[in-house]
Amino acid sequence: MKILVLNAGSSSLKYSLYETEHLLGQGNIERVTNMSDALQTAFAELAPALKGEAVKAVGHRIVHGGTFPGPLIIDAKVEKAIDALSELAPLHNPQCLAAYRAARERLPDAVHVAVFDTAFHQTQPKHAYAYAIPPQYLTEKKLRRYGFHGISHKSVALRFAKIHHKPASEFRLIVCHLGNGCSVCAVDRGRSIDTSMGFTPLEGLVMGTRSGDVDAGAILHLIAHEKENPAALLHMLNSQSGLQAVSGISNDMRDILQAADSGNDRARFAVDLFCYRVKKFIGAYLAALNGADALIFTAGIGEHSAPIRASICEGLDQLGIAIDGSLNNAESQESRQIGHAKIAVWVIPTEEDRQIARETVCILSA
């Protein structure tokens, strides 16, 4: 069965074609302004792999799925729910829906499945996802921590278990998904029990253009006393903050590290701030899990930046975390262990698209 996986970003479209879980072809289109045109390009690139066969199902990555606990076949009701959540993930959900609508028009006979980044985190206990505010805001306004990057965190946790030929239920893991968007997740025996992102993908770590944690009182102060526009502030926090704002150079960690090595103080500060925030969450999740079997780095920065991994792990030896410099610096695209202290340190490439294909197959088989 041919399965097309679509992963729409704010201005990009990643696509991949699977035969069940076997990858047949993939690609990435940048600077997307029209999803229908982007999808046409994707099909042209995938034509040799399709060999004239029909796509039976399309798995769509949806960033914000509220409290949906798992994947769903998209119908009018599900589409409306995803649309309603767009204000909480303004950089992502509208583009996810645009990709879905373009694919539905091109593939009206295929089954379209929504795979939610938030679903993996629905196993979190209430004391982890609730904010300490009057309870009606949770029950009536649904103001709570949802968490994101769940597809990636789940994929990496399952991959770690497979490498060790054991079920995921035997491991306590801390997974650091570090890319343009960043989050850390505490995975207790295959289940998410806490994660750094919250009501929106804005909470938690310093990211490429997102601020991460900022005292809500500071934002309210800007609105009440400085007469700042709330919409403009939201745009600033999502698109004009993070590494880009702190470094004054770029949202790309490669550019920032190069500048830091050349003596740029703002770039060095951006690196230090980024790594410190990750380190704090690692310590917090060691407490939440009462220890861990492994610390895992994944996504663009996590997989490819040895200096960032080294800086994050520096000074954690008393907690049982230390990396081997030669292993950390070795060039590799494969899953690998880079630390052999009490808590193993691993680099595992994320396989979000394969996980989406896997979950699409599961829901069609149910």
Structure description:
The protein is α/β, with parallel strands linked by helices and about 375 residues long. It folds into 2 domains: about 1-115, Nucleotidyltransferase, domain 5; about 165-350, Nucleotidyltransferase, domain 5 (2-Layer Sandwich). The protein contains 15 helices and 12 strands. The protein has helices spanning about 35-50, 75-85, 95-105, 125-130, 135-140, 150-165, 215-225, 230-240, 240-245, 255-260, 265-290, 300-305, 305-315, 325-330, 350-365; strands spanning about 1-10, 15-20, 20-30, 55-60, 70-75, 110-115, 170-180, 180-190, 190-195, 295-300, 335-340, 345. Strands 3-2-1-4-6-5 form a 6-stranded mixed beta sheet, sandwiched between helices. The chain starts with a strand and ends with a helix.
SSE blueprint and pairings:
Layout: E1 2-8, E2 13-19, E3 22-29, H1 35-50, E4 57-62, E5 72-73, H2 76-84, H3 93-106, E6 111-116, H4 126-129, H5 136-139, H6 150-163, E7 172-178, E8 182-188, E9 191-195, H7 216-224, H8 230-239, H9 242-247, H10 253-261, H11 265-289, E10 294-298, H12 299-304, H13 306-313, H14 325-329, E11 336-339, E12 344-347, H15 352-365
Parallel strand pairs: 1-4, 4-6, 7-10, 10-12
Antiparallel strand pairs: 1-2, 2-3, 5-6, 7-8, 8-9, 11-12
Helix pairs in contact: 6-15, 10-11, 11-13
